[in-house]
């Protein structure tokens, strides 16, 4: 009997629905029962692990999962050693700097000596360094957008998709620093068997994407 390839996808959030849809369109059945963290496909050699997106690159690096779908932002920030197998073209978003609506921004120098709240310290540091800016990075894991209004930071650096989170927190986007979309990642040492299952999955994904063009 062939083993199952283990695929990690986001449990809930911006990527989860599109990730599930992708496999369904590929004809790979997965049922995501309420609260279930694992599901074995009934018609394909795959099992799905439903995890927090931030944890997925680490699980794929360690081989707990063979494949995973995450935002490129999460992948790059994690600095985990995995293969970027394919960009998937959905869940597009950007990592941007945002400041209170009433303030002005004259380019990166406006951030000099300011404090910036973010869940993406590595990507933000890189941007600041490239622009010769010294700023104080406050790393927080969620609800980043409320930081300026509670006096925790002067600015934020967070993911923007529709922009509605920024808007409802009185912030405006002033500088995009990274463009992101969902990517398929893979462990660097897949078994021969898993490599052949991955080939089948890629063949189907390509067919789905062709049909959508
Ligand atoms: C991002 C960000 C905001 C939201 C912005 O979170 O932290 O919460 O998306 O989207 P909007 O511009 O459409 O309002 P993400 O979905 O990456 O989830 P996570 O940070 O909770 O993992
Ligand atoms: Zn997350
Ligand atoms: Mg968020």
TrEMBL record:
Location relative to the cell: Cytoplasm
Question: Which gene name does the record give?
Answer: hisG
| Annotated ranges, domain ATP phosphoribosyltransferase catalytic | 52-206
Q: Which GO terms describe its cellular component?
A: cytoplasm
**Gene Ontology biological-process entries:** L-histidine biosynthetic process
Q: In which pathway does it act?
A: Amino-acid biosynthesis; L-histidine biosynthesis; L-histidine from 5-phospho-alpha-D-ribose 1-diphosphate: step 1/9
Q: Which reaction does it catalyse?
A: 1-(5-phospho-beta-D-ribosyl)-ATP + diphosphate = 5-phospho-alpha-D-ribose 1-diphosphate + ATP
Q: Does the keyword Glycoprotein apply?
A: no
- Report the source organism: Lacihabitans soyangensis
Molecular-function GO terms, alphabetical: ATP binding; ATP phosphoribosyltransferase activity; magnesium ion binding
Cofactors that this protein relies on: Mg(2+)
Q: What is this protein called?
A: ATP phosphoribosyltransferase
In the record, the note on similarity to other proteins reads: Belongs to the ATP phosphoribosyltransferase family. Long subfamily.
**Enzyme Commission number:** 2.4.2.17
Its keywords, alphabetically, are: Amino-acid biosynthesis, ATP-binding, Cytoplasm, Glycosyltransferase, Histidine biosynthesis, Magnesium, Metal-binding, Nucleotide-binding, Transferase
What regulation of activity is recorded for this protein? Answer: Feedback inhibited by histidine.
Function of the molecule: Catalyzes the condensation of ATP and 5-phosphoribose 1-diphosphate to form N'-(5'-phosphoribosyl)-ATP (PR-ATP). Has a crucial role in the pathway because the rate of histidine biosynthesis seems to be controlled primarily by regulation of HisG enzymatic activity.
